[in-house]
Amino acid sequence: MTNVILLERIERLGELGAEVRVRPGYARNYLLPQGKALRATQQNRAYFEAQRKTIEAENAKRRKDAEGLAGKLENLTVDVIRQASEGGTLYGSVTTRDIADVTGESVSHKIPRSQIELNTAIKTIGLFPVSIAVHPEVKVTVTVNVARTADEAKVQRETGRALIVDERGDVADVSETEKTEIDAANDTVDPAEKEPGEAETAA
């Protein structure tokens, strides 16, 4: 295990300034290169204490900026148009990069894909709540509206329900059975979408 000093709040790990023990790979591959922590050496402890007020002030400014962005994102619904089968299964998936791009365009602000908290790949049409960590202490949820066409996306926005095409070719709301199948289809993590360090968790 490796001891590190956190330079920002890390969920399920600790607050800014906390000294915690983590797996070496998590520190080496994620926390240290991302500037989220320092190795807990005597020299770094002294440095952190000397710079604590500056670090805390910079964090407070970033948090304030993030709160402003969160205000723009709050209650936002973004449309993602994808090809899909009549049953609603996508030919592909919606990734964190897709969500970051379309959400950033909606608010004219670049959003890193690392801020998108997507645990499973989106592989069906429908409306999906997705959490965005715009700052370690500020999160907001947006709705990702995945549809086959802009017209279908509009209907899904208005009804709050995913649309499918029934056996007669008519558009209909997703039934409970189909919703269960869709949930099952989405219950697969896309390894390519994991952020660096996710494979290594804190002790």
Strand and helix layout:
Elements: E1 2-6, E2 19-22, H1 24-31, E3 37-39, H2 42-73, E4 77-81, E5 89-94, H3 96-107, E6 116-117, E7 122-124, E8 126-135, E9 138-147, H4 150-159, E10 163-165, E11 171-173, H5 176-186
Parallel strand pairs: 4-9
Antiparallel strand pairs: 1-2, 1-3, 5-7, 6-8, 8-9, 10-11
Give me the CATH superfamily of the largest domain: Ribosomal protein L9, C-terminal domain
Number of helices: 5
Strand content: 25-35%
Under CATH at level 1, the class of the largest domain stands as Alpha Beta
Order of helices and strands: EEHEHEEHEEEEHEEH
What count of domains describes the coordinates? 2
Low-confidence blocks of residues: 174-182, 188-203
Could you give a short account of the major beta sheet? 4 strands, mixed
What spatial form do the alpha-carbon principal axes imply? elongated
End-to-end gap:
8 Å
- Classify the fold: give the CATH topology of the largest domain: Ribosomal Protein L9, domain 2
Class by alpha and beta content: alpha+beta
Instruction: Give me the count of strands.
Output: 11
CATH architecture of the largest domain: Roll
Enumerate the strands of the largest sheet in spatial order, edge to edge or round the barrel.
4-9-8-6
Which value, in Å, is the CA radius of gyration? 21 Å
Share in helix: 25-40%
